[in-house]
Amino acid sequence: MSFELISNLVAAFLTLCIFSFLYKENPFYRMAEQLLVGVSLGYALVFTYERIFIPYVWQPIILKHNFVLILPSILGILYLFRFSRKLGWLSRYPIAFSMMGVGFGVPMGIHAGILVQMRQAMVPLENINLILILIGTIAVLLYFFFSKAHTGAYGKFVGLGKWYMMIGFGASFGLTVMARISLLIGRIQFLIIDVLGLMK
Amino acid sequence: MNFFERMQSLDRRWIYIVVALAIIIPLMIPYNSDNVTSPSTENLYQMIDSFAGREDRAILLSFMHDASTMPELYPMEIAIIRHCFERNIKVFALTFLTSGAPIIDYAFNSVKEEYPDIKSGVDYCNFGYKPQAMAVVLGMGDNIANTINTDAEGRKLESLPIMKGITNYNEMNLVVEFSGSTPGTYWIFYARPKFGVNVALGVTAVMAADQYPYLQSGQLIGMLTGLKGAAEYEKLVDVFAAYRDPAIDYSVKTDAEGNKILPGRPFGKEVLNDESTKKLINITTQTKAEFTPAEYTAFVAKYPKQKAIFEQLKEAQNGTIIIDVTKITPELRNQMGETAYREINRLTYNINYKFKVARIGMNAQSVAHIMIIVFILLGNIGYFIQKAKSVEK
After folding, report:
1. Which of A125, A146, A151 lies closest to A136, judged by CA?
2. Does A176 sit within 8 Å of B213, measured CB to CB?
3. pTM for the full predicted model
């Protein structure tokens, strides 16, 4: 028995265990579910040790004597005090340090997420799509402006915003169905092609 | 109890069985269908293709997903890597997720099986898993070799041949991120505004709706959406990158005027709409290489020593010349030589299963969608009939 065959059989068995939930809750499903959690955690632990701790902490400090890395390592170790009721406050220091990234992200996020998007909503109305985008943007923004009652002509216009959102939700739902079906297709392709070899 | 009322009270397990059959049957009986390519896929293809054969250009693939989203994202990755291997485009890959690292290896190794001349460190390079995403994204804007330092195999990046002519984002000018959760955040928010790198995404269909605004505003140069996007890209690779003109000898690297001869052909909308391209995208098994008399003469001229074998194999049908590769015995294959055998096989336009997996999946997807629409309609009609009856009572 080759390694590939054994791994395919194990994967096929676990896939069927998970699919068995479609019939009803059962011990095979629960076993596969808990195995997934355990394996993921174990994999992450080993991977973190091999690919992060060894090359980025152990080797530079112990083998290359790059002692300046002791400081960030200590800062990282402070995270572990989260488990202590008495010394838990120490874990706030690395968290505070990592806030630097959040600070850096704010201007960049505003630039890419708001300013560029706004700029693109202000282009000349050269085609029907751009007109629809402009109407939709204004109508949806006004829909969430609650200081004025949604009545009369204004109410009808902001109601258009609701329709825009409905169409958006419909598109999201369609894409979600497509994604879920794709996952099922992937598993069934695995079962009938990789495991059973019914198609080449 | 009428039909619609029965449908309302149908056990959900019957629906699961119907869904399963709607997927299993089209998968087991594949049929040739066309996937109309969308502008976002075409734009990404063209951008990648513009780097073909250039020493000073490369693309970076960012694998930001684990095995759970592989059915949608993996065919995209395979298709893009294949495009790069076909058209001599330098390609790098990295991941900021621990669970993404084995997927990079799996993808490269899987495509490489079909391209024996492609070498790690020369044609492609796997940076592997890198922690501290933001530092890496910003650092590569200055110098890639200094930031990444070593590749996944532990080799110094600066000593690899692939790094010749590649310093930072000025050369590695396109990043394609594959993700099922927060696609492209680092690249759109940090790398693009700061260094002007082009960004594209390959996303699961669920995430696509959130990313369309970035596509509309031009912050993304292209996007592959779920299995459909992967199927579209597979088709473009078959029509353009994997195409071989029977008359051109691709073993020669430059023509008489000193211009590079690249395998494949450049993107063209007119080619895509041409009827003749249909034979290039058949997902059913193809065993016959078809030539016009002029093409056959040009093809045989490339292999004068094998001419007798081709003459023995050829069949004339309706003004075309056909060679059936199933008639090539192991002895004939030995006499023909591997290069000629591979080329004649390629001219059948038979597509390896791993390069058409998304298109086969899309057949099942189409059937399943029609079935779900029918279920939604029946459910709604049943609901309103029941509602009308309860009002009457």
Report:
1. A125
2. no
3. 0.90
